[in-house]
Amino acid sequence: MYRITQCLSVGPFASPERAEKLRAAGVTHVLNVSDTPSDISTADGFAGVAFVPMSDSRRLLPSTAVRAIDTLHEFVAVPDSHVYVHCVAGMIRSPTILWLYLLALGVPLQDARDWIETRSPVATAGHHRMVDREHVFLAQKHGRAHFFPHPRADIIVPFPIAEEE
Q: What CATH architecture is 2-147?
């Protein structure tokens, strides 16, 4: 799991074996953006679990992008929530959806990419196979129309990068 902001993390598939570690890290909600249904549920101790299926080998449909960032926003809006966004490997889909959500909140494009890619060394945020400029404009427009005022200021506070010892 790679923590991107105070309440958003990204990483590989949330298997039942990983569920305990996610809960121990404070994860309360899980958003699966892979092409495989979730192996975990609210019965595993999470307040919310959602699945927005998508492929990482073709362009993301605008309706799917909106559904994913709306679901993410719904989870993040819960007080004290910590949302884990995952796909299969945590390399393309989950970083891209998290990136679109940060753009929807007004974080500058390169800042959002840097926050994700410096904290998750395997991530490619905004991968060219999935999104283009139209997705960026869609996320920004949708965010302005639906996500403000945002109930949590900590959503756009990057998580500190741990210094190596």
A: Alpha-Beta Complex (3.90)
CA 92 – CA 35 distance, rounded (Å): 12
Q: Which stretches does DSSP call E strand in 60-111? A: 83-86
- Bridging pattern class, strands 8-11 and 83-86: parallel
CA angle 98, 94, 131 (to 5 degrees): 75
Residue 120 three-state SS: coil
- pLDDT tens-digit map of 76-118: 999 999 999 999 999 999 999 999 999 999 999 999 999 999 9
Element holding 68 (H helix, E strand): helix 62-76
Residue-level length of the chain? 165
Asked if 83 contacts 28 with a C-beta cutoff of 8 angstroms, the reply is: yes
- Write down the domain spans for the chain: 2-147
> Do 76 and 56 touch, CB atoms closer than 8 A?
no
For residue 9, how far is the Cα from the chain centroid? 7
* Prediction pTM value: 0.95
Q: How far apart are CA 105 and CA 79, in angstroms?
A: 17
